[in-house]
Amino acid sequence: MNVAAKLSKMKRDIKAILFDLDGTLADTADDFVKVLNIQRQRHGQPALDPKLIRDTVSDGARALTHLAFGGHEGEADFESKRKELLDLYLKMVGDAAMLFPGMAATLEYLEANDIVWGIVTNKPRKYAVILIERLNLLGRCATLVCPDDVALAKPHPEGLLKAATSLSLDANTCIYVGDHLRDIEAGVAASMRTVSARYGYIEDTSQVNNWGADAIIDSPLELVELLGKNLL
């Protein structure tokens, strides 16, 4: 089924749009580029290509630590470097982060059309709240679900279902937008409609077509365009 046909399912019953955070709602990669290369410098290592870091951001701190220093989870040196990375990041959360181009207008569109929006992320709450505050979005975000709030993080649907419940909505009236396969898997498992953000931190964009999302967008404003066909 092509994108247009899949999007025909997005009727006026949509009540909420839920976003992944890093790589979907906000471009936070430059925070991690800065932090990881400062850390490497501390250990006498040259800076990494920013693209390598950007392509790894969505996989989390363990993947970034492995990218920068090798090693594996559970090894003492690996865990100490992962902790060092997170400590550095806590001091710099949001320093270079910004909304993706078009996202500010997308959020304004949702609000103007009585569609609430929220965030479901695998980013721990202590970092997520600082970031959202620095983006001046905390008072506008209707719900924020982090891994601290659930027993099982994405790709398990628990976080998405918790977000829908917090909004007093049925999951099938929500759309989840994300830039990783686990986002789409979580959305499908939660019986939400799903949108792949191909503009996010995806190393091989050719694989996005295989994720099984209801739609694929290359910029946040494409979400506005597609929703507008049914909601305006």
Structure description:
The chain has 232 residues and is α/β, with parallel strands linked by helices. The chain folds into two domains: 3-27 and 97-231, Rossmann fold, CATH 3.40.50; 29-92. The protein contains ten helices and eight strands. Helix 7 (125-134) links the parallel strand 4 and strand 5. Helix 4 crosses helix 5 (76-92) and helix 6 runs parallel beside helix 10. It is globular.
Question: What are the key terms here?
Answer:
12% strand, 6-stranded parallel beta sheet, single chain, two-stranded antiparallel sheet, alpha/beta, 232 residues
Strand and helix layout:
Blueprint: H1 3-7, E1 16-19, E2 26-27, H2 29-42, H3 50-56, H4 60-69, H5 76-92, E3 98-99, H6 103-112, E4 116-120, H7 125-134, E5 144-145, H8 158-166, E6 174-178, H9 181-189, E7 193-197, E8 215-217, H10 220-231
Parallel strand pairs: 1-4, 1-6, 4-5, 6-7, 7-8
Antiparallel strand pairs: 2-3
* Low confidence ranges: 1-10
The CATH homologous superfamily of the largest domain is called: HAD superfamily/HAD-like
> Architecture of the largest domain, CATH level 2?
3-Layer(aba) Sandwich
Number of domains: 2
Distance between the termini: 25 Å
Please give the CATH class of the largest domain.
Alpha Beta
The helix content, as a percent range, equals 40-55%
Described by strand count, sense and barrel closure, the largest sheet is: 6 strands, parallel
